[in-house]
Amino acid sequence: MQKRFWTLVGVLFLGVFAAACGEDPVSPPPPPPPPDPIRAALIDTVRLLADQRNLDPVPSGPVVRSELVTLGRALMFDKILSGNRNIACSTCHLPSFAMGDGRSLAVGEGGAGLGPARTPPAGGFIPRNSPTMFNLHTTQQLFWDGRVEMLDDGSIRTPAGAQLTPAMEAVFEFGAVSALGMFPVASRDEMQGEQGEPGNELGAFADGDLQGLWAALMVRLGAFPAYQVMFEAAYPGTAFADMTFAHAANAIAGFLLSELVFVDTPWDRFLNGDDSQLTNEQLRGAKLFMTVRCMRCHETDSFDDRNGEFKNVATPQLGPGEGDGPGGRDDFGRERVTGDPLERRAFKTRALRNIELTAPYGHAGQFATLEAIVEHYDEIDVRLQNYDVSQVEAALQGTLLNNVSEILATRDTILLPIEFDVIGRDDLVAFLESLTDEAARNLFGVAPATVPSGLTIDN
Ligand code: HEC
Ligand code: HEC
After folding, report:
1. Whose CA is nearest to atom 32 of ligand 2?
2. Are 296 and 354 in a shared domain?
């Protein structure tokens, strides 16, 4: 009797113990993994290198009032901002393609379909790749050539010059990002459309008449009572009649900075102290990235350029071009903004967070995969000479400019000694993949269900 009693107590005790530990108490604990001195040394090295370069996790974005986000979200997805009501910001910045469009060069006004399946109108392609919009709180230079940017004195330089009035600038809460939305609407190929199109009162404004166009956009938006309500909720105390398109652009910026900041990545968690976040391959890649000169340019926490310098990294030129050079099919990049011939073909050193999700790469989408753009840096002059144009869509292959020696004339000399083997390339790619926030893989939640105009939503 007594023996049975104690057996019962024992079973109960073990049961409670097992429940508390969540484990079967009889099987022995798994043996600890054998110590891996190579990995441990690699971790130490990467931590030391990151320390020396002052690398920290990327800070989170600003807190934006929800009414402003709601307005910006609607504007971002509403085709009402385009002359012919047929293209929204989101048509080229699609949630399903990590806020790019998954193609080398964007297809604007008059195109049909979405993403890689979109077919260009007779006018052809937009000259540059549509970039993603992640983590814009870490940059004050926008577009591939930085033509919308905040200068050191805090003023904002844009192609609009004095048409962007001090009163408009005063509305901007997020620096250069607030100014950006003023410009796609004024590009005929992207959103404005042409003169003489029936029903397109925006297309009627002469090139460069931004004030006229912006005012007409506000008339269009004001025709929807729902927009008037949304604008006045986003800017308490200001009547819709007293607002300008700067209020719209600032709201889009509020939306981008509230909804598209993704900084919780294995690399950030590693920097915060968790060794287990990176594989050996990623650790080797991080070491290489920090020692093979990538960080001479991709040098900040988000891996763009700290001093806002633009660089020529000898990427090939294809597509319709920006009107530069003989035949107008070239793109002189930063020189177009600064007038400095030393900055010919210099482009923005892009931030690399979530880079895995935003193929193709380069200012004209010249590289189809992360492997391809990383490999480009291994003996860059040779790679440029042997550039494989078959990786871009068929319609663009014949547009590759034959100008290797001109590109190399201003390519950055920092690049010259960079060399690595196939393992190095794969390690670098693995490291870049550690910069992905899992939450950025599915962005369908950022689109609204409907927009005030009732037009269809591209996402
Ligand atoms: C026809 C396609 C198209 C449309 C429509 C479009 N964009 Fe873009 N977007 C692009 C392209 C292409 C670039 C790069 C242009 C360049 O660098 O010269 C770009 C660049 C940007 C950038 C800069 C990102 C960076 O890191 O430099 C932002 C932000 C942006 N667009 C927001 C918008 C907003 C907001 C709208 C709507 C008001 C919009 N876009 C409409 C194609 C488009
Ligand atoms: C001399 C400065 C410089 C160095 C060094 C450099 N980069 Fe870049 N990187 C740039 C610039 C500028 C661009 C944009 C080039 C273009 O579009 O023509 C770029 C683009 C990229 C892109 C594509 C970004 C996008 O959104 O399309 C990746 C990925 C990249 N670099 C990785 C690297 C790696 C890996 C290394 C080291 C092997 C490296 N970079 C070294 C300046 C540099």
Report:
1. 374
2. yes
How many angstroms is it from 189 CA to the middle of ligand 1? 12
Same-domain check for residues 157 and 235 = yes
| Whether the model pTM is above 0.85 | yes
Name beta bridge partners: 112: 119
Number of domains in the chain: 2
For residues 456 and 447, the answer to whether their CB atoms sit within 8 Å is: no
Which amino acid is present at 106?
Answer: A
Q: What is the tens place of the pLDDT at every residue in 88-106? A: 999 999 999 999 999 999 9
Provide the residue range defining the domain that includes 130: 66-262+441-446
Beta pairing class for 148-150 and 347-348: unpaired
Nearest alpha carbon, ligand 2 atom 34: 294
Beta pairing, strands 347-348 & 310-311: antiparallel
The CATH code of the domain that includes 172 is 1.10.760.10
Amino acid identity of residue 179, one-letter, is A
Q: Whose CA is nearest to atom 9 of ligand 1?
A: 130
Q: What is the pLDDT of residues 19-69, one digit of tens each?
A: 444 455 677 778 777 789 999 999 999 999 999 999 999 999 999 999 999
